[in-house]
C-alpha cells in the first residue's frame, strides 16, 4: 500500500505514538528536523512509544527520555537513556544538561500546561546546540482554559518572542517554524478528550485540533559580529598610494 506519509510517520504508527495516530505531526517534523542528530531529548516517556520511534529514526544518536513519573522515568527502553526527573525543576534540569547535553533536538511532550511549557523552554533552551531545534507539542492547550496557568498562553508568549527576533541577536531564536496546525473542529476535540463540551473550555478562535511548533536556535556565528568584521576589513581598494 502506498501512502503520502514519510518514514517518520510510518515509524510512529509502528510504535503507536499519538504524534502519528492522532495529532499527525510527523511529516512536519521530517520536513524540518535534521536528517541526522547527535543527541535528542524528549520530555514525556509514558509507555515509550515515541522514544522507540526516535531511536529507529536516528539510530546513531543518543536518545534521552525524561519523565517525572517514577515508573515511566525508570522504564527500560533498548537504545534509549531514560531519566526520572521533573523537566520544570531547575536543579534537576541542570544536572541533566551537564551530564547528557547539549541537545540538537528537544521535544516537549510533557504536561502541556502552559506554565510548564514556558518553564521547561527557559531551562532547556540554553542546552540546545546552535542551529538546533526545540519543539513544543500540543500548543492547542493554549486555547483550553483548564491548561492555561500562566500570565500569557504559550502561543501568545511565542508570538511575543517571534516579534523580538532580530537575526538571532537578542533572543537567539532564528526561526519559529510553524505553528503547524492539523485543522479540525475544536469542540469535537474537546469532547473526544472527555472534557465537558461547553463552549467555555475552548477559549481560542483557531479552528485547529492539534498545534505544534519548531523553534530553531540561531546558528553559531553571530551575524552582527560577522558584519562588523566585514566592515572593518581593509581591502586592496582601500589602500592609499
Ligand atoms: C503525552 S505523555 C508522553 C507521550 C510520549 N512522548 C509518546 O509520544 O509516546 C506525557 C508524559 O509526560 C510526563 N510529564 C508530565 N509533566 C512532566 C514534567 N514536568 N517533567 C517530566 N515529565 C513530565 C507524564 O508523566 C507523561 O508520562
UniProtKB/TrEMBL annotation:
Matches recorded under Gene3D superfamilies: Vaccinia Virus protein VP39
Superkingdom, natural source: Bacteria
Name of the protein in question: Methyltransferase domain-containing protein
Organism placement in taxonomy: Bacteria, Bacillati, Actinomycetota, Actinomycetes, Propionibacteriales
Amino acid at each position: 500500500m502506498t501512502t503520502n506519509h514519510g518514514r517518520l510517520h510510518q515509524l510512529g504508527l509502528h510504535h503507536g505514538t499519538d504524534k502519528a495516530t492522532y495529532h499527525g505531526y510527523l511529516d512536519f517534523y521530517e520536513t524540518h528536523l535534521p536528517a541526522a542528530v547527535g543527541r535528542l531529548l524528549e520530555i514525556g516517556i509514558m509507555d515509550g512509544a515515541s522514544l522507540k520511534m526516535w531511536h529507529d529514526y536516528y539510530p546513531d544518536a543518543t536518545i534521552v527520555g525524561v519523565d517525572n513519573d517514577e515508573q515511566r522515568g525508570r522504564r527500560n527502553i533498548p537504545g534509549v537513556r531514560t531519566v526520572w526527573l521533573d523537566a520544570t525543576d531547575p536543579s534537576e534540569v541542570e544536572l541533566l544538561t551537564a551530564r547528557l547535553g547539549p541537545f540538537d533536538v528537544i521535544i516537549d511532550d510533557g504536561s502541556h500546561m502552559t506554565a510548564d511549557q514556558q518553564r521547561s523552554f527557559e531551562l532547556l533552551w540554553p542546552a540546545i546546540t546552535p542551529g538546533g531545534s526545540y519543539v513544543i507539542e500540543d500548543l492547542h492547550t493554549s486555547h483550553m482554559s483548564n491548561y492555561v496557568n500562566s500570565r500569557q498562553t504559550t502561543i501568545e508568549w511565542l508570538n511575543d518572542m517571534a516579534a523580538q527576533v532580530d537575526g538571532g541577536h537578542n533572543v537567539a531564536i532564528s526561526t519559529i517554524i510553524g505553528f503547524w496546525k492539523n485543522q479540525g473542529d475544536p469542540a469535537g476535540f474537546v469532547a473526544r478528550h472527555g472534557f465537558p463540551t461547553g463552549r467555555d473550555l475552548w477559549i481560542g478562535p483557531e479552528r485547529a485540533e492539534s498545534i505544534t511548533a519548531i523553534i530553531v536556535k540561531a546558528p553559531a556565528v553571530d551575524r552582527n559580529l560577522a558584519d562588523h568584521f566585514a566592515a572593518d576589513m581593509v581591502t586592496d581598494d582601500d589602500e592609499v598610494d
